[in-house]
Structures
1.
Amino acid sequence: MTLPQEAIIRSLPVFDDLRAFLGWLEAKGELLRLSEPVKLCHEMTAVQVAALRAGGPALRFDAAMQTDGTRAAMPVVANLFGTPGRVAAGLGLTRDQIDEFGAFLASLRSPAPVDGMRDALSRWPMLKAALLTRPQIVRRAAVQQVTAPLDLTRIPVQTPWPEDAGPLITWSVAVTRPYGSEAAQVARYNLGVYRAQVLGPDRLILRWLAHRGGAAHARTWARAGEPMPVAIALGADPATLLGAALPLPETVSEIVFSGVLRGARSELVAAKTVPLLVPANAEIILEGWVHPDDTAPEGPFGDHTGYYNSVDRFPVMRISAITHRRDPLYLTTITGRPPDEPSVIGEVFNDLALPVIRAQIPEVRDLWLPPAACSYRIAVVAIDKRYPGQARRVMMALWGMLAQFSYTKMVIVVDSDIDARNWDDIAWALATRMDPVRDVMMIDSTPMDYLDFASPREGLAGKIGIDATTKIGAETTREWGKVMALTPQDEAFAAALLARHLPVRP
Ligand SMILES: Cc1cc2nc3c(=O)[nH]c(=O)nc-3n(C[C@H](O)[C@H](O)[C@H](O)COP(=O)(O)O)c2cc1C
């Protein structure tokens, strides 16, 4: 069911499924169909990396080639969210609406009391958004048109990097719920994107890291000694994909939230062999069970850090059913040294989160997580500085108040006249406003991503905060430099003068 467009600020059509989004992209010239044979083993990765680096279109491989030399049974789609513009489009927005949507999300988190009728009417979009959060349960679903044999090897799964352990499902949206919940209680569901190593025709490994929603649910089933039902949606609609990739608080259900993103309610259908509701419009659903203590060594696989992960044990999922559309598409991506598709998604999420961060730390003007630093390990914050010591307070607020910064090992704070997204500007601030002894704060034994092998102990590491702001009050006893600038009039005069004499550059 589609609800009124003005419910939220989305300006693009509703994308009910992946193919609706692909059709829209194709009409915009943002989908490239490739009929040449491309090998699923490594070759496809090279094409994806090259397309992403060139800011290129989404890709549809019509002749994906399996390792045994046969042509895959279905087309493979990749580089779907390879540009910030396509991530925004997946959210139903244009790139310049991201800030506004971020502000809208921030207001949903902290609704202010209504102040009169005019104010109540201005909140109408939020009431409508609330309506969109109720999923709709359907009896017949496109994703159940075909019940396939229990054979994962028929799905064209990539082996992305040369030293990878085997085929790896990458855009898998894992659907779970905690022990003690009912299948109908979708508000308690978690959707997360966790890579899945294919072990054989009916077994795969689910690599949910310990702090993820899926892992938290798995612990509740393991404590009860019961097998856990799991479903994996492949090729879900863009709102479900992006909702699952967003680090939402545990109290917010991705299914509920994706309705707001989509601008239409989520459609769910009962899975065939497990007590779960699954996205009705996905391309493929894998159903199965995770039994307590059933784990297997996962990896190595290339990861978003640009390195191969070490081998680690993760839960095994035993597949009980595979359903798909009559003519399914398989959606894939790769993770590697940034830029990769998740880092492009991260850039847009960064902007979406900014108003939420500002609501908690009002002096923050801008915040950038450089994608090259694995999207979260370095943060640059621009602040409106008013009092001595403020930069350190902001560092501690980011690390302490906001869980998403626990793995950010370096925070650089700059003044708001510095472009926090421009390394040249940041370097100038570091070179002219920072003293390495006075302006660096280091702390030890803080939580850290276990993937960071540079930390001396697994999961525990130091943090560094660098204050590259102008020093004021008791922070300095010396006269501070005055920033040089020409007047806008002189600059305009120079531009006009040179424009008359110099050839126009193409
Ligand atoms: C393509 C892609 C692959 C990902 N792979 C993993 C993974 O293997 N393990 C993991 O824990 N998180 C992975 N993530 C990150 C999580 O999906 C993301 O942090 C999500 O917000 C987790 O949801 P949750 O907080 O509900 O668990 C991946 C994200 C993307 C976009």
2.
Amino acid sequence: MARSAATWDPAQYLRFGNERLRPALDLLAQIPLTAPGRVVDLGCGAGNVTAILRQRFPDADIVGVDGSEPMLAKARMSAANCTFEQADFFQWQPRHKLDLIYSNAALQWVDRHTTLFPRLLSFLALGGVLAVQMPDMRATPLHQVSRQLAASAEWSQELGDAIPQPGILPVMDYWDMLRPQVASLEIWQTTYMHALQGENAVMQWATGSSLRPYLDRLSDERKSVFRQAYADAVRSHYPRRADGTTILPFHRLFIAATMAA
Ligand SMILES: C[S@@+](CC[C@H](N)C(=O)[O-])C[C@H]1O[C@@H](n2cnc3c(N)ncnc32)[C@H](O)[C@@H]1O
């Protein structure tokens, strides 16, 4: 569970807020509910998506759940008329059955999905929906470069045990696990061509997310050395285009599971 213990920096995460928001909206667009009564934003982070859930469902009771107090502090300022709870995904338990559990870019931070997903379904009311979006970038240079660096002679003593274990399962495992338990199931994958601006854009992106488990282990000085080494190693995989933009192809898995009414 080392990944779930990562410290989160809302400002760094939101630096690419527009790119990170788009899949959240695409997931929201596929939720087949008009007026759910009880909604949870699981892994709500800085609350920017919780605020959009509030706009879409003005009469719902909306609770944001997250393990990070800095993220929740930001969320409390971002999303009006919502409540927030600090909890780990595996410990959290709602007080009432829920109409919607929405989770954007959060559940990939933990493993044991074969325990977690059935547990989440068990919290849903009749006709309730579990809507999940997870990045699936394990097999890409974005993650491979950091894993290779952490395992190298220079870094393995400090970072060898920070290398994340895969959390997300092969896509068909979600089908086989969820389909027998729900009335309808939609699963889809999208590759977003995120167009990032600025110097070392991929390193900056990763600093807000996938590098966190490594950076947490390092002193400020070693953090800068690691980030620079990552920027140098990842650059050739995501070259800057002639117009200064860096394209980061980003694979995301979406799940919308609806319980029988
Ligand atoms: C990438 S952020 C996504 C935030 C938000 N859903 C969004 O779309 O902007 C992932 C969030 O998951 C939370 N998280 C990761 N592992 C967790 C765990 N085991 N329990 C609770 N929260 C966790 C982190 O604290 C972080 O705020």
